[in-house]
Structure formats: structure tokens, C-alpha cells
Amino acid sequence: MKLNTITLLLILLLNSKGYGQNTSVKIFGNTLAKSIIENDSLLFRSLIIPKEAMIQTIREDFSSKMTKENEEKLIEGINEKYDQFIAPTFILPFSLLTSKAGIHNLKMDHINYELVETRFSDSSPNIKSVHGILTHKKLQHFTFHIIKYQAEWYLLNGMINISETNKLEEYKEMNEITLSSDRNGFLQSEGTMKLKNKNASKIDIFNCILNSVATVGVTETSKINEDLTFIKGTWEYKYWVNDTDTPVGKISFKYEFIINDSSIHYRYYNYVHRQADSEFTSINQLPLKANEKTLAVFTKDQYDEMLYDTLVNIRHSIRSHKKLTDKCLQ
User: Fold this and answer.
1) Which H or E element spans position 204?
2) Which of 30, 163, 278, 318 has the maximal Cβ count within 10 Å?
3) Mean pLDDT for the chain overall
4) Which of 146, 157, 126, 166 is nearest to 11 (CA)?
């Protein structure tokens, strides 16, 4: 799916680092908590990033990271879509949070806040990620992102969470999942999934993954007495670009999970594009970077979009496997 101007802005704004403690951050956090507990939508709306702050941030912090044409298109999109953007991105999460607070009888006072550094490629001193520690027995983490504009703090986006786990740590783990190339330059992604249960045996992890709803297309597994414990599989799906109604073909890939004590080494590889019933010629195995063969079928923007969507899918898959396996091993 193609990134619209607002989505692109959020990605740019989130490429940031948090810095040292700040008293005004605590005041902001307590005001945000009050708006949630009291279901005060007017107070909450007053905390949302103004349109002018978005535009200033682009001009001051991110103009060097894009062409002038893209910068102007992004600003034009914000001017045109700001009001539409508020409701789905901020107000819906607010409604969900007020409901959660009521259901769990949350008392959001005496919150301890800390600023968290996030491992992204770029940074802005005006943006911070905040982790609040709650005293609730189950929901102990309150996380959000803020931006400073004209000496005041505002919510950067609707990524506000009250949860059992620290979402900032989860985001950090997900952003450590990247695309790479094998020795022939073809697309792959590999890394290690660390599990919460440090005493989990290989066989327990194996059974949890094999029986998980997130595990599809299994083609081969290790035997009980083999030294190497693994699960291998393959999957295929239709693909669209640029929000088109017509698929541009099918993409298949292979995966393997090599299971160790308390961790899983994953590898997603052999991504292949087939024409199927589309009008787009088959590329066959996909490279990490656009080349002459890919550009004969897709534009560079389309191929970059394909790579981005592939990364998002891998991150979602890893997140699902980790979450379900951790739960299974409890």
C-alpha cells in the first residue's frame, strides 16, 4: 500500500531520539492522564500537535532528508488534510484508552516518568518518547511521544498506550528487524527472537511454534533426536502497489526458524515475484536494491514500496510469533 503524505510525515517524525529528564514532561504526562481518566475530550484535543508545528518540524528538521518538491507536497497535504487526520489518528485511540481506564478502574496518579532513547537513524531535539510507570497490578506501562513547539509540549501522534508491556521496548525490538541481502544480493531478513522464558527448552519452544496460529505453510521440521531443531515453511500472497485495484502478481517466500534454548533464529528469504494473472512481467527472485531487471517492470518508487511492505510484514510476523510463543511458554 502506498504511503500517503501524512503517513510519511509520521515516519519522519518518529525517526528521533529522546533526551534527559524534564519537569514539564511530567506536567504534560499528568495532564494527558487526567484527560483519559476524566474522559475530557476537550482537554485531550488541546494536547494534539498543531498543524503549524507539523509544518515547522518538516522545514527545520527534515527538509534536508527530502527533495524540495516532496517537502512542498508533504506540507500541502498537511494543510489540506489536517482536520481529517486528527479524528482517526488521535481521537479513536483516546476513546479506546478512556474505555480501558474505566474497565480496569485505573488510578493514574503518582506516575513516574522517564525519557527513552529510540534507535532510529535520525533525531530531533524537539521530540521525546515517554515511558510512565503505573501502580496498577496488570497495566503498568503508559507510553507516548511528544514534540515541543513554542515552548509547549504536544502529542506527536496517536501512539498512546496503556499496557502490560512497555511498547517503547517493543517498538525498539521491531525496528531492529531489517532487510538485508544474501551473498548474491537477493532479499532476506534474519535475526534472533529472544523469548521471556529463559528456561524454556528447545522441544517446548518447537511445539509452541508448530502449533501456533501464526505458523503457516510448514514444509519441513526436524526430528525429535536431531541435533538441530528447526521449522521450515513457504508462503505466497497477492500484491498490490499504489492502492491499485488490480494485483501486480504474486510474491512467495521461504522461512526457517532454528530453535535454541530461550531464543529462535529466524530467516525469511527467497522472495520471488510471479506475474500470475497480472500484466506485470515476472521478476523472479527479488534483489535488495532496485536494478535494471526490476526497473523494467516497476518504477523505483513502486519497488521501494514493495520492499517497505515486505519489511512491515516480516516485523508483524516476528511480533506475532514472539507474543504467542511467550504466552505459550508461561
Assistant:
1) helix 202-210
2) 318
3) 86
4) 157
pLDDT the model gives residue 172: 84
Residue 131 exposure: Cα atoms within 13 Å on the Cβ side:
20
SS3 257: strand
For the chain, strand residue ranges (E) read: 112-116, 127-133, 141-149, 152-155, 161-163, 180-181, 187-194, 218-221, 229-238, 250-260, 263-274, 284-285
* Cα separation, 329 vs 322, whole angstroms: 11
Predicted confidence (pLDDT) at residue 150 exceeds the cutoff of 50: yes
Per-residue pLDDT reduced to its tens digit, 69-117 = 888 888 888 888 888 877 778 999 999 999 999 999 999 988 999 988 7
Take residue 216 and report the three cell numbers written for it. 503457516
> Which amino acid is located at 142 in the chain?
F
Q: Domains for the chain: give ranges and CATH numbers.
A: 5-167 (no CATH), 177-328 (3.30.530.80)
